[in-house]
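Input:
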Amino acid sequence: MKRTLLTGNAAAAWGMRLAGVDYLPAFPITPQTEIIETVARWIDTGEIDCRMVTLESEHSMITAAGAAAATGVRVFSATSSQGLLYGMEMLYTVAGWRAPFVLVNVSRGLSSPITLEPDHNDIFAARDSGFLQIHCATCQEVLDSIILAYRLAEDERVRLPVIVNLDGFYLSFTREPVEIPKSETVARFLPPFDPGNVRFRASEPVSQAVAVLGGGPYSYFRYQAHLAAMNATSVFEEIGKEFEEFFGRGYGSLETYRSDDAELVFVMLGSFATKAKDAVDRLRAAGQAVGLVRPRLLRPFPADAFRQALAGKKGVAVIDQNLSAGSGGILHRELTAALYGQPETPPVLASFIGGLGGRNIGPEDFFGIAAETSQAIAAGKTPPPRLLFSEGELKDVRQLQAIAGISPEKPGRDA
Amino acid sequence: MSETRFQSLKDLPAAHLLGTGTAMCAGCGALEALHGIYDILGEKTVFINAAGCMTLLSVYPYTPFRGSWLYTAMASAPAGAQGVRDALDILLEKKRIGPEDDLQTVVLTGDGSAYGMGLSATSAAIERGLDFLYICYDNEGYGNTGHQSSGATPHGARTATCKGGHGFGGYKKDLFAIWAAHRPAYVATVVGAEPLDLARKVEKAKAMQGPRLLIALAPCPTGWDYDPRETVKIGKLAVKSGVWPLKEYIGGKTVHTKLPRKRLPVEEYLKTQGRFTHLFEPQRDEQTIQEIQARVDAYWHEFDG
Ligand SMILES: Cc1ncc(C[n+]2csc(CCOP(=O)(O)OP(=O)(O)O)c2C)c(N)n1
Ligand code: SF4
Ligand SMILES: [Mg+2]
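Output:
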C-alpha cells in the first residue's frame, strides 16, 4: 500500500480533491491557510475543476457556501478559530437551510489572549449550531473523514452540513504517512451530489429559508434538524463500515484503545488522544488497567456508544481541551449528561482541563490524572474539576510578569 | 433613453406580478418600489434577502414571489448572491442545467443593511464583479426594529433613538457615491412615485451584466409618521424639492434622469412628515431648516452651475 507523507492540511486538501468539489468559498486564517493555498494551486495547474472565490470575511464565506449548496453544487470550505466565530451567525443559519456541505475547522485557541496554537474552544462554540462534527486524530483520518463527511451530509436521512475538525499545528503542520485513495474508488463510494428538490432553478421556483410566525412552525423545523442530526448516528456507523469495504479502514463514532478490560478510562478528543494512547501503554506497563475512548463524532453525540464503552468501568477521566468559563470542561458535562442514571454507569467521572493554547499534556500529566482518578475511585467520590498547570509553568509566567513589571504580591487580576 | 420600451405611463405593465396580501404596512413605499421593479425583472429571479421589513414578504408557507427567494441574514445578502450566482454558473458550465433554468440573482435589503452592516459584503461583491442586481429600499432607518437611526437617516429626522428636540444629529451617508466609486456596471436612484423613471432604469439594469445597484427611496408611513395615503405625494415631493435626486451612474459618468428645474423649498417636503414636526412646532427651527436647504442647494449647485 503506497503511502505519502502529508500534513493534516494537505490531507484535508486531498480529501476535498477526491470528493470532486465544485465550489470553494475561502478566507485565509492560520493555521488553515495551507488548505486553500493547496487547492488554489491545483486549480491553477488544472488538476481539479473547482471554482474558488475569496470572500471578504468568514461570515460572507459561510453565507456563500450555504447559498451555493442550496443551489445544488458540492461545496467545501475551511476556517479556524476567530474565523469560525466570525461566521457563527451563518453556521446556525445555513444549518437551518439544511444545506449539506463540508467545512474544515483547524482548531486554534480563541482570543483573548490572542494565540495561534490549538485548543477546542472554537469548535465547541459551534456545538449547538446544527452542523455535525467529526473530530480527527491523524492525517489519514482527516482525508478519510472529509469523504465520509460528504456521504453523511448529503444522505437524504441527514442533509446537514458537517464540520471536520483537526488540531492546529499538531495535525495541520505535522507530516504523517497517508494513503491517498484512488479517485475512481472514491467516486464509487461517493456518487455526485443529488440536491433533490432543494435547489434554485428557473423552471421550479422555490422559497428557501423563509421566516416563520409563532413557536409551532419554528419548533417543527428546529426539531426536524435535530432528528436529522440524530439519524446521523446510525448513518455514520453504516457508511463507516461501507468505507472499510472500499478502503480497508473502518470508522465508528468512537475509537477505543485497550478499554475493553480497563478499569479506568481516559476520554479525549482530537490529536492529543494519541498522547493519551502512549500514556495508556506506559500505565499498562506499570500494571494499571487503563484504556482510552476517543469520540470521532461530537455531533450527533454518540451517547449510546459511550454508555456501552464505559459500562461497568470504575472511573472515567475526561480530559477537556476547552474551558467553559464558570462551568468547566464541556465534554465532561456532555458525557455526564449521557451517563447519568444509566445502568452500570461508572461511579467516578472526573474532569481535567488541559492543552489550552497548545499547552502540552505530557506523560506526567496522564500519570497524575490516573492517580487522582484512582484515589477518587477508592474514596467513591468524583473530585472537583482540575486545571492542569505545573509549578514550572507558574514560575515561567511569574518571570514574564516580572519582565512586564507586574508583581503578583500586589492585588491584580490573578485569581 | 429613446431605446426604452417605456415611453409613457401607458407602457407600464397593467397588472402587478408580485402577489398581494403581504404583511407590509399600508402605504409602504418600499413595497411600492418593489412592485415596479418586480414587474420588469420578472419571475426568472432569485431574491436574496437581508433582515428587514421585506423579510416578512415570505412567511411560511406563503410568498408573493413567482420566482425564488432565499433569506440570509442582515450582513451578508451579497455573499448569498455570490454563492447562488457561482453555483448557477458552475451548473451551466458543467451542463447540469440548461440556460433556460438560469436565474437573475437579486439582492434585496434595507438601508440599515446596505449603508452599514452589509456594506463590506457589497463592496467586495462589486470588487469581484459579481453579476447581480442589488435593490436597497431606503426608508432611512432600521424600520423593522421600530425605526431607529441608521446611516441613511437624514439630518434632523426624529427616530426611535433620536427623540430629542433636534432629531438626528448626523447626516445621510452618500451611498450612491460610495457604490459608484467602486465603478460597477450601473448604479441608480429611484422612487416608487416616479414609476416611469424606475421602469426605465430597471429595464436598463436588467439588460446589463456585472454589479448593478439601485437605491429606492422608500417613504415609510410608520417610521416617517404620516398618513399612508401620502406615500406617492411624499415620494414626488422628495424629487421636486431636490432632496432625492434621480440619477444613474453608467459608463463612468453620473447623469440626472429628472431635473427639478424649479426646486420646491425643502420644507414643503419636510412638513409632510411627523418625523420633522419638531422643526416647525412649537417653534420654527429656522437654523436646521436652512441648513437642510443649504445642503440640498449645494448639491444641485454643483450640477446647475
Ligand atoms: C446581526 C443582526 N443584528 C440585528 C438584527 C435586528 N434587525 C432586524 S431587521 C433590522 C433593521 C434593518 O434595517 P434596514 O436594513 O434599514 O431594513 P428595514 O428594517 O428598514 O426594512 C435589525 C436591526 C438582525 N436581524 N441581525
Ligand atoms: S415600517 Fe415602513 S418600510 Fe417597513 S413595512 Fe412598514 S411602511 Fe414599509
Ligand atoms: Mg431601513
